[in-house]
From TrEMBL:
Superkingdom as given in the UniProt entry: Bacteria
Catalysed reactions, semicolon-separated: ATP + protein L-histidine = ADP + protein N-phospho-L-histidine
Entry-linked SUPFAM superfamilies: CheY-like (SSF52172), Homodimeric domain of signal transducing histidine kinase (SSF47384)
KW Cell membrane (keyword) present: no
InterPro entries: 2C_system_His_kinase, CheY-like_superfamily, HisK_dim/P_dom, HisK_dim/P_sf, Sig_transdc_resp-reg_receiver
Protein name (record): histidine kinase
Coiled-coil stretches noted in the UniProt entry, renumbered to this chain: none
Keywords annotated in UniProt: Kinase, Phosphoprotein, Transferase
Modified residues (4-aspartylphosphate): 53
EC code: 2.7.13.3
Gene3D superfamilies registered for this protein in UniProt: 1.10.287.130, 3.40.50.2300
Domain called Response regulatory: residue spans: 4-120
Amino acid sequence: MNNKILVIDDEMINIHLYQDILSQTFYEMETALNGEEALEKLKRFSPDLILMDVMMPGMTGYEVCQEIRNMPKHQFTKIIMISACTDLEERLQGYQAGADDYMTKPIEKEEFLAKINVFIKLKKAEELDQLKSDLLTLFSHETKTPLNAIFGFSGLLRESPNLSDSEKQYIDNMIKAGNHLLTFVDKTILLCELKKIINLKRHCNL
């Protein structure tokens, strides 16, 4: 499946430029001429990355970016804002609105494609990390729930005065094995969370 890109720009000359550059790649491209059209299109189109002009009639790129960041469906979608303005305050405003990067016109083709490639890879990595986290949460819940029941019933059984020493030993071994499994589950979750943090730091340094 091809990666998807949404271009939001009110100037057709810019859209044609992006189409020309991206036509040499395997990216699937959709376009919107303003923020309102883009937000409507995002209800049915799920891009991996959005290329967005800052100054547009109606909603500005900053306003559109903030709206997108409020959509859980697009929480991992990467946004690159593009503007002719090189002012630092403008770039900072873009980051504050939720943009992942900010490029100034005229764009350099090689840098443009490199950024697209990096941010789409980052998006895929973040989605995979989230999937792992969800699976671990499910694994933890589905493992700990029966273990807690085993510990509870084993503890009650262990207090029975009619047990022989060998029967008590069997119960102790069962509880010990359960604790080993519980420790394994907790360590696995901890290691995965640490790996997630390390990956996030590495991605932030890209």
